[in-house]
Amino acid sequence: MEDMTDDWFESMVRMRRLRRTGSLRRMVRENVLHTDDLIQPLFVIAGRGVKKEVPSMPGVHQVSVDKVGREAKAIEALGIPAVLLFGIPQDGDKDAVGSVSWDPKGVIQRAVASIKRNTEDLCVITDLCFCEYTDHGHCGPLDEDGIVDNDETLLNLGIQAASHAAAGADMIAPSGMMDGMVDAVRESLDLHGYEDVPIMSYAAKFASAFYGPFRDAADSAPAFGDRHTYQMDPANSEEALREVELDVDEGADIVMVKPAGPCLDVVRQVKDEFGLPTAAYQVSGEYSMIKAAAENGWLNHDAVMMESLLAIKRAGADMIITYFARDAAKIIAKGKG
């Protein structure tokens, strides 16, 4: 340091110059979280007058069809552009193939209609799977060995997709990770006259340990075994790119990576490789960990929540499915996002 001249100090790049004040930091900020980036998941349950908090997901509720319209209206009022619906039928209505999922009077079908009556321009996305509707909790009918039958599931996904579109869904989101699912859904939608209904594919969905609280909320835990034969190994990223490419080739309009936080590298790779609208799902385990830490005073809830969402956007996500959507929208509205 003794050999350094005054001239060197005068010309030295000082990165801190643009961090000196809040206004300077905002002016050079590379990524900004907007309310338009957010999608709020909703769990719709059979029955009436139900708004029941999920114990493992503080602040998240199961709501009945008669209440979901009001919930959706409040979400739209916050400026959030979309909801993602999960249906929970009565246990007695579940069967081996999940046929209640395509009932015109089913939970999702009635929920979509209710939301459409109560909102002006809210985008209603419906999750397309069978784990909430089968009596065994797997994502499709089983073969004689107890393994999900991929091709029979595709036929049923087509029926379910057409039913959701007929109810008024704006977008269909197949999530079961069946081979050929996007092609089957696209063919069914087109055949039934719903060519304009887009598909958001759970293209790279990992067999993650972060899904536990969701299975409480959706009553969708498998009765036996696990989902490792159809969801992806969390160790693999090249496989994720292959999965996304297949879904793109089959006609996916939006591709999704799930879970978001543990897979930020995959989100970045998918966005760079394909350039398609890319969604990332901040899943229940990510949400519940932040909630639990904040409730114990270990973390600042709002600061960590917003940082986690910003990291997902920085990784390349164009839209973020998150149980924090309502809370984040309120913070963004105050100009503190």
Structure characterization notes:
With 337 residues, the chain is an alpha/beta fold. The protein has one domain (31-333): Alpha-Beta Barrel (TIM Barrel), CATH 3.20.20. The chain has helices at residues 6-11, 22-27, 65-77, 107-118, 150-167, 181-191, 212-218, 238-250, 264-274, 284-295, 301-314, 325-333; strands at 38-45, 51-54, 57-64, 82-88, 123-128, 171-174, 200-205, 254-258, 278-282, 319-322. Strands 1, 2, 3, 4, 5, 6, 7, 8, 9 and 10 form a ten-stranded mixed beta sheet that branches. Strand 2 (51-54) and strand 3 (57-64) form a beta hairpin. The two termini are 41 Å apart.
Please mark out the parts with pLDDT under 50 across 5 or more consecutive residues, or reply none: none
Shape: globular
What is the CATH third-level topology name? TIM Barrel
Please tally the β strands and state the result. Answer: 10
In short:
This protein is α/β, with parallel strands linked by helices. The protein is 39% helix and 17% strand. The protein has a single domain, classed as Aldolase class I (TIM Barrel, Alpha-Beta Barrel).
Explain the layout of strands and helices.
Blueprint lengths: L5 H6 L10 H6 L10 E8 L5 E4 L2 E8 H13 L4 E7 L18 H12 L4 E6 L21 H18 L3 E4 L6 H11 L8 E6 L6 H7 L19 H13 L3 E5 L5 H11 L3 E5 L1 H12 L5 H14 L4 E4 L2 H9 L4
Parallel strand pairs: 1-3, 1-4, 1-10, 4-5, 5-6, 7-8, 8-9, 9-10
Antiparallel strand pairs: 2-3
Helix pairs in contact: 3-4, 4-5, 5-6, 8-9
Q: Which descriptors would you attach to this protein?
A:
alpha/beta; 10-stranded mixed β-sheet; 12 helices; 10 strands; 39% helix; 17% strand
